[in-house]
């Protein structure tokens, strides 16, 4: 039996449609949610992502700005751009596209973003809030994965969840969200001794390593739900995930494709977070007026 293919593109489109409706409601209250995307340098792949994000905003009725900065911009100049966006009332969400050129310190830049506008959920305050079970913004990729599991009726409650890759932007927040949803979580890294022994125990397997073919069918428990977070461009131009799709789909119960899986969900959840940021802004000003 071959696995059900989880259609992230379709789910993302329906979430963006819901966002569009709520944006329309918010506009009647005089507020248009605004997202600023800061892009440093001229990496062509980053340009594509950033353009996709802006197009998704436009379609859902959000205001968006792309701030393109020279690759040689100084740390001080970049920080001053962030500070200006923190003070800009039209902007509810700020995303600084990563990775930054090596002369810039991404930790310092991310901490400079107002936590209330950190729609990536990367700020240390937002990481701490998530860890303590009181999330403000959930990082978009793991948040999108949770939405996919929900839509597929895959309950994390009491399940064995194994995550391969322990990054701050995917693996660690993914572990926190699955734990909060009742899963028993194993977080693997590049030092994990027998990776296959871990992955074979997983009812829910999330792979986020940036290495194509990291997980294959032999490493998957029959019937498991496999979520492939990887997006790798091969020399021949093909886009593949971290999971060897052909062998994995013969064993898994459900699996996300690349492209058309997690990627589109990441963008949809960015819009959800920006909408939430704007809504919080409205309810805050209502409390202040009362
Ligand atoms: N501060 C920050 N936040 C991010 O969220 C962030 C970032 N920096 N830096 C780069 C990565 C990458 N990322 C993607 C989002 C969507 C797709 C996506 O929609 N992919 C399509 C395919 C796109 C294509 O054809 O190239 C898909 O998987 O179907 C891919 C990659 C967000 N990132």
From TrEMBL:
It holds the Pfam family THF_DHG_CYH. It catalyses: (6R)-5,10-methenyltetrahydrofolate + H2O = (6R)-10-formyltetrahydrofolate + H(+); (6R)-5,10-methylene-5,6,7,8-tetrahydrofolate + NADP(+) = (6R)-5,10-methenyltetrahydrofolate + NADPH. Keywords: Amino-acid biosynthesis, Histidine biosynthesis, Hydrolase, Methionine biosynthesis, Multifunctional enzyme, NADP, One-carbon metabolism, Oxidoreductase, Purine biosynthesis. Pathway: One-carbon metabolism; tetrahydrofolate interconversion. InterPro entries: Aminoacid_DH-like_N_sf, NAD(P)-bd_dom_sf, THF_DH/CycHdrlase, THF_DH/CycHdrlase_cat_dom, THF_DH/CycHdrlase_CS, THF_DH/CycHdrlase_NAD-bd_dom. Residues 6-120 form the Tetrahydrofolate dehydrogenase/cyclohydrolase catalytic domain. Residues 139-280 form the Tetrahydrofolate dehydrogenase/cyclohydrolase NAD(P)-binding domain. Its EC number is 1.5.1.5, 3.5.4.9. NADP(+) binds at residues 165-167, 231. Homodimer. Catalyzes the oxidation of 5,10-methylenetetrahydrofolate to 5,10-methenyltetrahydrofolate and then the hydrolysis of 5,10-methenyltetrahydrofolate to 10-formyltetrahydrofolate. Belongs to the tetrahydrofolate dehydrogenase/cyclohydrolase family. PANTHER family: C-1-TETRAHYDROFOLATE SYNTHASE, CYTOPLASMIC, C-1-TETRAHYDROFOLATE SYNTHASE, CYTOPLASMIC-RELATED. This is Bifunctional protein FolD. It comes from Neopusillimonas maritima. The lineage of its organism: Bacteria, Pseudomonadati, Pseudomonadota, Betaproteobacteria, Burkholderiales.
């Amino acid at each position: 039996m071959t696995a059900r293919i989880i259609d992230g593109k379709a789910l993302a489109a329906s979430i963006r449609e819901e966002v569009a409706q709520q944006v329309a409601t918010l506009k009647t209250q005089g507020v248009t949610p605004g997202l600023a995307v800061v892009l440093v340098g001229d990496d062509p792949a980053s340009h594509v992502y950033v353009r996709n994000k802006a197009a998704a905003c436009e379609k859902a009725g959000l205001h968006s700005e792309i701030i393109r900065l020279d690759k040689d911009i100084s740390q001080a100049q970049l920080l001053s751009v962030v500070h200006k966006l923190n003070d800009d009332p039209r902007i509810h969400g700020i995303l600084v596209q990563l990775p930054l050129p090596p002369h810039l310190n991404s930790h310092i830049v991310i901490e400079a973003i107002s936590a209330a506008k950190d729609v990536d959920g990367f700020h240390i305050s937002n990481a701490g809030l998530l860890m303590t079970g009181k999330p403000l913004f959930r990082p978009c990729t793991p948040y999108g994965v949770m939405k996919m599991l929900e839509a597929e009726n895959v309950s994390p409650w009491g399940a064995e969840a194994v995550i391969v890759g322990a990054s701050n932007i995917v693996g660690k927040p993914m572990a926190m969200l699955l734990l909060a949803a009742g899963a028993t979580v194993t977080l693997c890294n590049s030092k994990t001794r027998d990776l296959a022994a871990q992955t074979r125990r997983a009812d829910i397997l999330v792979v986020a390593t940036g290495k194509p073919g990291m997980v294959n069918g032999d490493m998957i428990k029959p019937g498991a739900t496999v979520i492939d977070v990887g997006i790798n461009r091969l020399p021949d131009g093909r886009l593949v995930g971290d999971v060897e799709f052909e062998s994995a789909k013969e064993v898994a119960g459900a699996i996300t494709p690349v492209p058309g899986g997690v990627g589109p969900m990441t963008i949809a959840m960015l819009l959800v977070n920006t909408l939430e940021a704007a809504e919080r802004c409205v309810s805050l000003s209502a409390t202040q007026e009362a």
